[in-house]
Every structure is written in C-alpha cells, then in structure tokens.
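Lecture notes, unit on protein representations.

Consider one protein chain, 265 amino acids long.
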Amino acid sequence: MNYNEIISSKTFFLIAGPCVVESKDVCFEVAEQLTAITAELSIPLIFKASYKKANRSKLDSFTGIGDDEALQVLAEVRSHFNIPVITDIHETFDAAKVNDFVDALQIPAFLCRQTDLLIAAGETGKPVNIKKGQFVNADMMKFAVEKVLSTGNKNIFLTERGSMFGYNDIIVDYRNIPLMQQTGFPVVMDVTHAVQQPNSSAGTSGGQPQFIETLAKCAIGAGANGIFLETHPDPTKALSDGANMLQLDKVKSLLEKLARLKEVL
C-alpha cells in the first residue's frame, strides 16, 4: 500500500466495505463492485472489513466467522482484486495477528485513547487509521497522533465519525475536519457511522441512512481528504450495523456526485 500515493489523490480516497467479514461471498461481491466503481472514477480504494467485532452491545450479537477464516478472506480479497485492505484491531496482540493479512490497521473510535494499542499499531509500520471517539474533541486527537508517531510511523489517517448528542444520537461538527488536519495528517469522514443511532433499549443500533449523501457532500465541502463508508448488497440482512449502511447499488451514484463536487471546489 502506497500511503503517499493514496493521500495525494486529486479527488479523495475511499475506505469502504462491509462492517464485518460475514462470508467470502459478501466480501467478494462488495470488493468487485467497489473496485470497478473507483477505477472508473479514479478514486483510490482501501477495502475495509473487520475480521471480528469486539465491541457489540449484546452478548449474543454477531462477532465474526472466526479469526483465522476471516483473515484468510481479507487476504484473498487483497490478492484477487489487487487492492489494499484495512481491518480493526481491539487488543495489542491483534496487531501482530493481522499484520500478514492486511495493509493498514484501524483503531475503533471507542479505543482512540488506548496508548498500548496505538503504539502496537504504529510499531507494525503499516498505515494506521485512528477514528475519533464520540467523546473526544478534535483537538485531543493530536495526542493519539503523538502516540503513533512515537514509534517512528508517520503513515496516519484520522477519521471523524460524529459526537454523541443526548442518549441515542450523533451530531457532526464539520469544524473537526480542518481542526484535525492541523495535525498535518489527512482526515477522513465516516458518513455511515455518523448517521448511526446507538444505545437503543433493544441493544442494537438504529440509523438514518437517508442522510449519508448529505453528510458526505458536506464533508467534501469542508475539505475532507477521504470518505469512509460501510456498504452491503442488502443492509437489511447485514449481520452488523445494517441500519446505518449504504446499499451497495447506491454507492456509484454517491461517489459520482462527490467526485463532481470535489472537481468544482
């Protein structure tokens, strides 16, 4: 994965894929479509899927198909489509476990202050995407950056995904994009988790995917370097975060609009 080539795109780069590795079939279907769309629009793509989900609300929520099997699927996506792959890590030992299977590591928003985890990710030498916690302001993210930089790793992304408002809603403050860019690193806007409605009494998150396009347009207008989105052929059947995903057949139209907006700006 060429970090500098991705962040220097004249359009924006895209981090996208299903929330979690549900199966090889789902990952390959999503990767095939995303690869074709981004190639046509000259948008650098990083395929994203969590090899496991460690931060679910309920004990019986789907967490994955098994670590080894999921990592093998990600490796096959990377090899078959010749695209870089990123996955979440939740524990320090995860960094070494996933190192040979993916091209970049992602720090979940809830864990953006975990010093040992950030250092372990940085020590792999791979690009690290640090998602801003819902409880953290933009200025505080400079400290997360410093933890990764302490390892000598300068391949860093920061991702805005909104802030908690009340008990079950997320609000996006677009000042956070230029504020986090002051760290000197590219900033990505997560347009699907930002429409999430977490903490429902049922133990599953809701969402308002009808606002994904609005948030994405605002992010490009605010100067975001990249867009993060989760997508699925049928979000109603997705095993994680389906309520806030963008349906796969709507991705091309969205990216076309964002590419035109970026060109105008």
